[in-house]
Every structure is written in C-alpha cells, then in structure tokens.
Amino acid sequence: MADAHGFRDVLKLWAIGALVWAAGTPVCVAADYTGTVQALQERYQDEVEAHVSYGAFSDKALTEGYPNSAYLFKSLAASEAIHARNFKRLLEELGAELPGEPLQPRPVASTRSNILDATGVEADEIDHRYPAILARIEPENHRAAIDSLTWAWEAEKQHRKLLGRMQDAAKKWFKFLIAHIEGEYVDYHICQICGSTLVERPAKQCPVCGQPASHYEQIPYVAAERAGPEEEF
User: pLDDT category, 9, cuts 50, 70, 90?
Assistant: First the structure.
C-alpha cells in the first residue's frame, strides 16, 4: 500500500512539473513573427488574385479558339491556388487574420496581351518580390513560412519557363507561333504540396519540395476533345 501511495505521489509531482514546464513554454503567435505575417498576407492576396486572373485568361483563350493556351492558364491558376492555400494555413496557425482588401485581378484583354501581362508579372515576382520577401523574413526564422515561400518562388520560375515560348509568340509572328503551340499535345501536372508545375510527372520526387511524385495531379484539359499530336517526319 505504501508503494502504491508513493507511486501516486511521483505521478502528481510529474504532472505538476509538466504543467509548469508547459506554462513557461513560448507559443508561436503572430506577435512573434510580425514580418513573416505581413509577408504571408501580401503573398496570399497576390496568389488569390493570380488564381482569379489566370482563370479568366483561360476562359478568354478558350473563347478565342486557343485551347492549349487556355489549358496552360488553367494549370497556372491551379498552382497559384495551392500557394494561397499554404499561406492561409500558416496564417491560421499563427493566429493572424487574412487580408481583407478587395481582390484586384488583372484586367482581361486579348490572349496575346494576357500572355505578355502574365509573363511580366511572373518575371517581377521571380526577380524582385520573392527574393526581397525572403530576405526580409529570414531573421525571424519561421522555417515553415520560409519553406512555403521558397516553394512558391521555385514554382513561379517553372511558370515563367512554361510561358516563355508563348511570350515569344505574343511579341512577334503571333498567329504562326501560336498555331504551332496549339498544335502540340501536352499535359500539365501540379504538385499538391507546393504547386510545382511540370509537363511530365517526375519519376520519384518533386524537384521543388522533395515530396513523393505521387502528390502530383494531372490537370484536366479545358476542352472535351483535342486533336492528337501531328506526326513529324
């Protein structure tokens, strides 16, 4: 009986010690990461606006008879949605509010103009916005936020590469080059963890976030049917 009482006393002491330790453990809150929160809010707003803009660009390309271009825009929109989702989750974990400003998606023009607009915005994000944001939040060392922002940055680089030939088409000989692009048969695959956007699913793991390739999903084509690739001789 004495041993039983002694055992219960030990348990009580352990429980009290655990509570004291927990009470003194710092909790990650928005106030501890003010710069990180601001960066996540900024990027969340921009990614949601990009998602909406690319969706509208996709619809416009489809109405103009460019289903492959519409398919690319649809895939880019899906990638931007994953970035926004990741930033939203981090803001919620930090107890921070989502930005409340009204969305300001980019205006929809012709597909040619939309391509030039998209490549310009992607270039600005890749070359200026993301490097500046990552440098700004590095001292706060919120690793999950740094990882998510880095993933988005790397995915944007993939977006610029995918838009590259379309940008060339938009700048010169539009009808000739866009016809060639529209004659190609491609599929787009999006990593549901980081938004990586590829025309071929990787064999083993995502080149951006390192997660298994099973996290990639193929984006459905925008039209019910599409012509097969032309034979090359």
Answer: low
pTM of the model: 0.80
Q: What fold characterizes domain 30-185?
A: Ferritin (1.20.1260)
226: left (phi over 0), alpha (psi -120 to 50) or beta: beta
The whole-angstrom separation of Cα 96 and Cα 142 is: 14
- Distant-in-sequence, close-in-space partners of 180: CB < 8 Å, separation ≥ 6: 169
**What is the DSSP annotation of 204-232?**
SB-TTT--BGGGEEEPPPSSS--PPPPP-
Cross-sheet strand order for the sheet of 197-198: 197-198, 189-191, 216-218
CA-wise closest residue to 230 among 179, 170, 167, 176: 179
Nearest by Cα to 175 from 75, 53, 64: 64
Q: How many Å apart are CA 144 and CA 154, to the nearest integer?
A: 15
From start to end of the chain, where are the E strands?
A: 189-191, 197-198, 216-218
